[in-house]
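Below is a filled-in request sheet from our internal design queue. Each sheet records the structural input a requester submitted and the sequence that came back. We keep these sheets so that new team members can see what a complete request looks like end to end.

REQUESTER: design group, bay 2
PRIORITY: normal
MODE: inverse folding
CHAIN LENGTH: 200
BACKBONE (tokenized):
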């Protein structure tokens, strides 16, 4: 595990690399010609007006990327019915809250960590009518457990994205829709490839 000092060095080098890529050639030559030590070079580069502009632009890009990530996460967790609480998931399946926790830990239910605390369970993995809920999957979407296993150690949001995004291995269809059609083997193969390569 990296120490705080190593993290500082790594992030500082990335920032300085971005700065060096943005500085005009004439300023780079000027800094190199007059700096007598590494410390002087660093201070001289950071003192250039263009340095502040470049670093501010980079900070704005990072902030915008973070905002897009937050918006994407919000859209993703709200698709297909949003997230159920543990209690709601238990009620949907007719089992105890402890049984839901057990399935989550076993990896047979998908759970998304909530920003505050606890987990939310994507509603799409639970049938909504009594007839479907009585299937031999214990109330889960048929093929869900096998698909989650095939996805391996992908983060929960990546797994959610897999189920709800078009997949080229499935003719651009969403894995969720293929599972609803009963085409479990195809989805499991696509999930195995996603889990191995991190791409649909």
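RETURNED SEQUENCE:
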């Amino acid at each position: 595990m990296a120490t705080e000092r190593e993290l500082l060095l790594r992030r500082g080098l990335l920032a300085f690399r971005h700065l060096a890529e943005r500085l005009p050639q004439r300023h780079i030559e000027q800094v190199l010609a007059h700096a007598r030590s590494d410390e002087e070079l660093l201070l001289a580069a950071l003192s250039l007006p263009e340095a502040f502009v470049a670093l501010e632009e980079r900070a704005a890009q990072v902030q915008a990327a973070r905002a897009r990530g937050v918006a994407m996460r919000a859209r993703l967790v709200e698709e297909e019915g949003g997230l159920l609480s543990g209690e709601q998931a238990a009620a949907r399946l007719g089992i105890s809250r402890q049984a839901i926790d057990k399935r989550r830990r076993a990896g047979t239910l998908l759970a998304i960590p909530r920003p505050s605390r606890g987990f939310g369970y994507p509603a799409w993995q639970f049938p909504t009518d009594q007839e479907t809920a009585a299937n031999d999957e214990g109330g889960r979407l048929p093929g869900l457990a096998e698909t989650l296993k095939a996805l391996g150690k992908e983060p929960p949001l990546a797994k959610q994205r897999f189920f709800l995004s078009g997949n080229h291995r499935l003719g651009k269809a969403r894995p969720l829709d293929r599972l609803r059609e009963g085409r479990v083997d195809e989805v499991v193969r696509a999930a195995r490839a996603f889990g191995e390569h991190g791409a649909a």
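SHEET NOTES:
- Residues 130-134 have pLDDT under 50 and may be disordered.
- The chain has eleven helices and three strands.
FILED BY: M.R.
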